[in-house]
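Help!! Second protein's tokens look totally different from the first
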Amino acid sequence: MVKTKITPVKRILMLALTILMIIPSIIHAEALADWLYEEFCKKFPDVSPEHWGVDYLIEADFRGMLKGYPDGTMKPDRPVTYAECIAMMVRASGTIIIDVDKDWDAICKAMPKLPTWVKTHWAANEIVTAYSWTWIDRDLIADKTMVDTAANRVFATTMWGRIDRFYIMRWNYNNVDKSKLKFSDCEKLNDEQKTCIQMLVEANIIDGFPDGTFKPNDSLTRVQVAKIITIARGWAN
């Protein structure tokens, strides 16, 4: 085989051709991104393209993890309810979601302590799925009004920690040193809660506040949960 000599001129021409091939791709990608933002904000007119979490919202919407409201809004900065948080995390987990309408009798036999009101809730499928995996505690669903109140930060971190521990296994829960938890207001949390928070902190998914606190009982918004999940699943940075 005769080897072709690559002269400096040829190298320059090859580089120029490569650049000419790449530039249209970049321009196309930018145009596609602009179109995506525009279409998303048309779909949910209450979301601005300049919103700090628009990338997480787009990804969550694309994955079917986060859904808008019947009035056509997304309400990204609205405090997320327990039911919404459960629904988002179960959908993002990748597990098979239980169909309560199809399997209710079997569900009742398998989970006799499951409250009957759950069947009629809009997030019934996700709530039952989470309960079956022990990703949520029965105390949360014992009172049917509880799931529609604002969820707090420690619930969100603990539930996602359980999902990762028992299903996704992206991080090694058993190797997390909860004693490294630096937040001054987490002393009264149980060991599981501390470990889940520390696991997500070490993964750079969540952090505390400048005053050195975590504020475990504070509520969090829909977009904040979308950020946690999309980063945790590797769908966003």
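Here's the second one for comparison:
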Amino acid sequence: MTPLSLLWAVPREGGNAGAIFMVQMMLIFVIFYFLLIRPQAKDRQRHEAMLAGVKKGDEIVTNGGIIGKVVHVEEKRLTLRTGENTRITVDRSRIAGILSPQGDLKEE
């Protein structure tokens, strides 16, 4: 009996319905884990590593679409230069990505 056929299994007369139900629930959880939970956790780890690597001089884009160059780095905040005389302070967690010199998001 394959694991996928256990999802459609119907207990026979006098069969152990509770065991088949538990196997079905475990299979559904495993499917959800590999399709939803694990990829999201990997993306979160990659984003946290990218945030930890932000340094002075990097050109970044925020979640709101603001593009600027990092001029000051603190533990929780970054100061960005967005124009000649414009500086804004942004929460580090609101950074969407680091831009490459060509203007594209860096792939890591």
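Reply: Different proteins will give different token patterns, so don't panic. The radius of gyration is 24 Å.
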